[in-house]
Design a protein that fits this description.
Blueprint (H helix, E strand, L loop, with lengths): L1 H6 L8 H30 L1 E4 L3 E6 L5 E6 L5 E5 L2 H6 L1 E7 L7 E7 H22 L1
Antiparallel strand pairs: 1-2, 2-3, 4-5, 5-6
């Protein structure tokens, strides 16, 4: 649409002259929010913790979501590294339970830290399962 506005004559009238300057300004503001402000807020509001009994995460800006997964409920622990995460040496840890609502994700950890967290949680879940049988 922006490319089309460049080729429309100025004297045509209608909304095109307004859109010719409004669309780039709105686009620039959107980029500023998405690249500059949203990551800062997300970093300030996202928390995670691994204790002896559970894995906790807290997310959200205006409405907060607190998720707790007991170690005894852990079925699978995955470490994933997307393309950009590989470039920056990061990884994400996903802790899965039998319930689809019980998934906890710990985003953008240093790769070594993510590996240690995953190994620790796997060992704890294994010990818990062995103790239960």
């Amino acid at each position: 649409m922006v490319a089309l506005l460049v080729w429309v004559p100025d004297d045509l009238g209608g909304p095109e002259p307004f859109l010719r300057w409004a669309v780039p300004i709105v686009t620039a503001l959107d980029v500023l929010v998405v690249v500059g402000i949203r990551p800062w807020f997300k970093h300030r509001t996202y928390r995670w913790e691994v204790t002896a009994e559970a894995v906790h995460t807290r997310t959200g800006w205006l409405s907060r979501t607190w998720t707790l997964v007991p170690v005894s409920r852990i079925q699978t622990v995955d470490v994933t590294r997307g393309l950009l995460q590989q470039v920056f040496g990061l990884a994400s840890v996903a802790v899965y339970t039998a319930s689809s609502q019980g998934t906890v994700r710990i985003w953008h950890l240093e790769h070594g830290m993510a590996q240690r967290v995953a190994e620790d949680l796997t060992a704890r879940a294994e010990r818990t399962r062995d103790a239960a049988t």
